[in-house]
Amino acid sequence: MNALEHQLEYPFNDALPEPGRTMEVAPGVLWLRMPLPFALDHINLWLLRDEIDGQQGWTAVDCGIASDTIRQNWENVFDTVLDGLPVLRVIVTHCHPDHIGLAQWVCGGGDKKRWDARLWMTLGEYMQARVMATGDGSNAGGEAAARHFGLHGLNGESLDKLRNRESYYTTLVPAIPRQYRRLREAEEVKIGGRTWRVVTGFGHSPEHCALYCEESGTLISGDMVLPRISTNVSVFDIEPEGSPLELYLESLGRYETMPEDTLALPSHGKPFRGVRTRIRQLREHHDARLAEVRDACAEKPRSAADIVPLMFKRQLDIHQMTFAMGEALAHLHLLWRKGELKRMLDEDGVIRFASV
To answer: What's the pLDDT tens digit per position in 278-325?
Structure first.
């Protein structure tokens, strides 16, 4: 545990749910942990005891990527954990593959088609998922992504690998439900007799949905507030002049008013208390990265590819490089949009940023 983690409280210490099993972390809230084939090797999912229109059952929050291992883990949960009751709805926090990948399968009751549950998402996340599911809009691979990051200095083998990842999203998210129920900022959703308020967030994804229950002091924070790592905030091809870091830092204000002893249930890492402390840490982290970028661009014009090794001092695979490029560009764009940097297209066809 690093120094920043010592400032947080982990009420369950090192306890983790076994694959295909659950742990109760709050009244009526069960924790599932599913494996991912990336450097970030897991995702936390949640089951909440529920009742809708007089029918007893469960609400699932997030689903995992489409993989045989995760399907089998879910099947075990369906058979042994749910007390014979159905999943009544599936809430997906946002459109990234590890969250929405198996949504249609879970909504349909798994391999045995046990039930037909509705998907609940914000409009922005649902529509972005539908765009990327066409195979023409993935931020993580394909020709458009390669053109975008090539313009910002990515080249050589990394660019070729990125271009060849055109089926990345559709492999992990084979289908999106054709219908959904829209969630909106500040909407109150009754789950298991408790009121959960929708807290939208921006920058990491188009319209991320977290859920906060003031009565139980519980926050399902999704990817917006993570305990060990900073949430990825990237400029991608679909919005090439965007300033997602500005949006993300603004969004954090919606969480730092919550009590410090709120139990945060993040999508990655362990449940923790200390939400305000963690948000302060995240703000300090980005302030430090912005200072590094500002100083680097004062020395000479820099592309996003030039900034990556300053911000990420380790070897990166192509999956990590995609997010590193996007995040470097997000920091450059915040300073550019604030008027501290100017942007220019150099003779070699690469966009670089320099001090004003």
So the answer is: 999 999 999 999 999 999 999 999 999 999 999 999 999 999 999 999
Residue type, 294: R
Classified as helix, coil or strand, 89 is: strand
**CATH homologous superfamily for 5-295?**
Ribonuclease Z/Hydroxyacylglutathione hydrolase-like (3.60.15.10)
Burial class (CB in 10 A: 0-12, 13-18, 19+), 53: exposed
Give the chain's radius of gyration (CA, Å).
20
> Measured between alpha carbons, how far is 356 from 348 in angstroms, rounded to an integer?
21
Q: Which structure tokens are listed for 131?
A: 């765009």
Give the mean pLDDT of 168-183.
Answer: 96
Give the integer Cα–Cα distance in Å for 254 and 132: 28
Q: Quick one: which H or E segment has residue 15?
A: none
* Residue extents of the structural domains in the chain: 5-295
**Burial (CB count within 10 angstroms: exposed 0-12, middle 13-18, buried 19+), residue 344:** exposed
Provide DSSP, 121-162: EEHHHHHHHHHHHTTS--TTSSHHHHHHHHHTT--HHHHHHH
Task: Quote the DSSP letter at residue 287.
Answer: H
